[in-house]
Structures are given as C-alpha cells and as structure tokens.
Amino acid sequence: MSLCQPPFPTKKTAILISAMIAPLSVFADEDSASKVTPEILPDKITVTATRAERSSAEVPESIAIIDQARLEQENMTNIANALKGTPGVLIESTSGGYSSRMIVRGAGLKAQYGIREIMVLRDGVPITDPDSFTRMDFIDTQDIEQIEVSKGPGNIYAPGSTGGAIHIISKSVFDDRRDQITLGTGEFGQSNLHLRKSFMSEEGNALAITASHRKADNDWREHNDFESNQFSIKSGFLPSDNSELETEFSYTKAQLNLPGSMNESQFEEYKRTGKQTDNSSAFKNSARNSEIFFFNSRLNVDLGAITLKPRIYYNHWSHFHPVTGVINDTPGVDIWGTDLELAYAHNLIGKDSLVGGITYRQDRNIGAQKYAYADILTAGPTLISTLSDRKGELLEEQNEINTVYGFFLQENLRPNDRLLIDAGFRFDHIKVEQETWNSDTSYNYGMGGYLTIPGSGGNSEMQHSFDLFSPRVGVSYKLNNNLTLFGNLAQGEQVPFASELESNSDLKNSTSRSFEVGLKGRASRWQFDLNAYISEVEDEIINVRTNGESIYQNAGSTDKKGIEFSGALNVLEKQLPGELSLGFNYAYSDYTYNDFSEIVYIMGVPDNFDRSGNQLPFVPKHYYSINANYTHPSGIKARLQADSWGEYYLDNANSEKYGGYDFVTSVNIGYTKGPHDVSLNIQNLFDKRYAVEALKDTSGEKTFSPGAPRSAMLSYRYQF
What we know:
Maltoporin, Chain A, 720 residues, mainly beta, 22-stranded antiparallel barrel, 5-stranded mixed beta sheet, 57% strand
C-alpha cells in the first residue's frame, strides 16, 4: 500500500470522515461573518510531536497533555493515575506499585506485562530499551511537571515503535518554585515521602536534590507488598549567555512482589470478599526487584538561526525476577546512548524550521542467568507450588546486545498564519545479537514441571537486523480563532524483541500505516479535541498463550478504526465564586484481524485456526471517562473522575467476553493556604469489585487480575 493513499478507503470509512468534516464549513462561515474576536483560553505547550515548542492546537495530530494542576490532584503512585481517562490510551496496573500495562491505539497489546511498542521519554531522553521494553520503576512520580501523549505511528522521537510517544517532563532544575516536602499516609500500609530542594547562584547556575520513598503493604491480597527508594541530583550550568547544560544522576532501589492472577472460582471469591487469598499459578513467589543508576546530560546552544541540542545518557540496572518456570537473575544491564539534534530556523516559504539529528543506543545484557526454583512441591513430574524464591539449578546463561543506529529529519513549514505543514521521517537500523547456553534441564509448560533430556542443552546463537522507515506528513489549518482542522498520514515499524524471536525466529517486523483527521477547539470557557483515524497493520506481532507459555506469531494484516473525543466546559459564570469545569473523554475502537491464522497446540500438535474477521482481544469498543474539577478562592479544591471500560473478548477466537467495568470513581478533596496544601485522595470510591484484566488461553483456561479495592490516602505538602 502506498503511503500516499489512506488505508482501506471503504465506503464506511468515507462516511465516518465526512461526518466529522461536514460541520466545519458552518464554523468557518460563522467566523467570517462575525466581527467579534472570542477570548481564547491559553493553550498548553508541547514538545513531543515535533521536537519544538508548539501549542497543542497547532500540532497536526492527536496529542494529550496532563499538566501540573492535574498531577497535583492525583495520588501518583503510578503514571496510570495520571493517564487514565485519556482517549486512545488503555492503562491499568495488575500488580500495584510502579507496574503498568499500557496500550495506545492497540500498540502494546502483545506485551505480557509492562509497556511495549510505545516510546517513553524523560526530558527528551529515551527510557525505552532498543527492543521496545520500558522500565517504569525508576520514574519518580513526584518529580513530574507534565506528561505528553503523542498517539500513533511515525513519531520523530520513536524508533522501532508504532504506538507513539509518552514524554515525561520532570521539574526543571532552574525552577525553584517546585521546592517542597510531601508526607502521605493511607490504607493498606501506603506511605509516601518526597523532598525537593534547589539552590540558585547569582549567575543563574542551579542545583536540585530530590528524594522519594514509597511503600504499600497491599494486604488485601497475598504477596503484593511494594517499596521504592529514589534519590536524584540535578545540576544546571550556564556556560555562556546562549547555552544551558543540564545534568542528572539518579538512583533507585525498588521491590515489588507479584500476586499473580486468579482463576474463575478465585475471582468469584474475590468479588464476594474483596480479598485475593491465592492465585491460579503454581508459582507463588514471583517478584520484580531492581536497582538502577541513571545518568543523562543535555546541552542547549542557541547560535541564532541554529540551535544545537546534543544529549548523552547511561543507564545501569540489575534485577531479580522470579516468574513462571524460572528465576531471572540479571547482574547488570548497561545502556549507552546519544541523541544529537539540530534545529534550523529559516524562511523557505514562511517562518519555517528544520529539525534533524542522529541517534545511537546500545543495550548490553551480559551474563543474565535463569535458575530453577529450589524449594517446590511436586506430584510426579508436575510442579504443584513453589515454597520460596531460592535459586536452584542453573538452567540458562545468556549474553544479549541490542543496537540502534538512526537519523531523523523534519521540515516545519508556515506559508501563512493559518496553515502549518509538517513533513519528516525517521530511519533506524536495529540489530539484535544473542548468545545462549542451556542446560539439559528446562521448564516444560505442557507438563507443568522441570524436564531433563540428556544432550538437549548446549550453546546457540541468534542474530537479526531490521531496517525501519517511519515517515509522517501532517497539516493543520486554523479555521478561525477557536477552531483548527488537522490531518496526517504516517507510517511506523515495530521491531520484535529478543524473547519473541526466541519463540519464533521467523518473526517479521510489523508495519503500521495510519490516516487521521480531526478538529481542535480552544476558547475561554471550553475546549475539545475530536479525531478519527484508520490504520492497517501488516505482520502485526500477536501473543498466543497456551498453558501459560507465550508464543508469538505474525498476523497477515489488522484493521484498526477509531474515534476519540476529549472536551471540557467551564459551567460557572465569572460573577460566581470559584470555577467548576466538567470534562468528558470517549474512545471508540474497532480493531479486527483482516487476515490471521492462529497456530494452536493441541496435545503438543500444532493446528491452524482462521481468526480473520475476529476482534482483537482485551481492547473494548467503547471507553469513556467523566470528570469534574472545582476550585474556590478560599483554597478549597476538588476533583472527581469516573472511568468506564466496555466489554471485550478474552481471546483471539472471540469465544467469550468480559463485561468490563462502569464508573470506577476516584476523588480528591484538598485545601491550599499559602505554602500549605492538604489533600485526601480516595481511589475506587464505591469499592467496586472488578477485573482490570481478563484473559483466556488456547486451552480454555481463564485468568483474572482484580482491580484494587477502595483506599484512602491523606497527604500534606509544604511549598518552600
């Protein structure tokens, strides 16, 4: 399919897009006839879509911004607290703590846990590994100024990812208004301590020290306590009048015990009692414990028409990760990288700019080991239960190197004050190298126990290379002072990660092509974003689960169509005290397999089942969220949000649906007086019993991960 053609230009698609565009001529006519200039609400500024500061209304794509005011009214034990309710973004935590599973317009669905297929950045520095996996354990959620969500393929920041980019912008070292101490305590053993102190010299140089401690016992279910300790030092140096150098070093030590999912009878017991006393797996001692050192340095040099923005970064992490069948013990992973960016302001046809640069990143995981569990109960060859996470026999040792070489280029054209055109691309070469030693013993998923076959072990090697091309063309047109129309064509390519290639060495990288059109409105008392998109994914990588094992396959093609709306309205007149705004967010997602033959193993023998025409599992057709925000001049403030997740299929066969959940509600009530701020945050206000994730594997086994019960947390913040 040519990128110049919208994917699957069907009659249904034409009707969908026409329905969106039809009302726009009315707005345009009204503007041309009116002599009154409406008051405009100041728009939020983003850097994620184009690597340049720009108001969100001008960006020719769908983008969501969660600002500091919103973040201060969230519990923020996890970025899911802030991103819930964002149309097109499905995010839940099955294990609490920092753990999140995120899906953006279907990208990330293949992940067993965590975040895949979506680039996550912090202050312009990628924290997503070259194989597209993102670790969220070292993100200090108390040190976030803003979160920006750019949805869809072709993002200039996102090599090897089709879901777009999540940009976490931390509090600037040059901003001493963010100094504070925060103390929080809550139900289920929750505690939160945070301190930030900055120092500024007369010359403008800066230093900021941040420390955070978070803890939760989560005694509403077994084996799910969490603790994280974080420390960072940021420095800001002004080498000259036209340059800034920011450097950060951070350290994190995090521990999270994983409770596991439940079978159907256990889930019914949870709904009755509100407690999870067991899981459906024989592995009762799963965990994810990590230690992380992170360094990055960013230079900004203004040379007039040219701005240089080089970045370098280094990340070293180790983890202890008992999971199904094996205990992963990774002594140390080293990630080096640089992003050398240049921006050039010029006048090709107007006030234009060109952004370009090169990227290099390497992930070196040397000496990673997998062990059998030492303390187990068995019935014959079948493992019944683990008794501890003590390491037993060494099963595997592995060296892995993932390398990314890439460059990007984007031209931003402004022919006039109304029209803006973005045209650019990324090209990335990704290389995966792996050397593995296996013992004669391995965990056999079909048997459910350890199996020794003399002579089956030994050494093996794997090498794969992928060339990924991700172009994008976007146009935005300002219809009047309030309304902006936009559209874009984009392509992104997704690289399979190493563990997927281990299960299927024939995996191809997937290609997503997308066409999007939308309308953005900004005014003094209201704002909205409305868009529709259609995309086709070739060779989408699908996760097929059998007996607890994930096997990855390419689907021939997948069709994805969606509509997203986000809006807010200030409903109080200016003469009344305080401000009350009401918000509504909605996403319609129609994702189907256009061509997919699923390989299912029956009694160890593979068989093909045609899933063409079926809906993708887990993604609901309807997702919506409502919210209300109130502030009073006296300092009283409140926020209420209710999220609803529609029904979805449990498997690729579309054999059964889960009903989702309705109006799971969180509320925050606070009071601010001078530098003091007190707030009460209540999650799941009505104590609903529901599943945040329901799955069914090819053997028919269903598993459920419960949503957390009602919990309250009281916090006090003192602003220096």
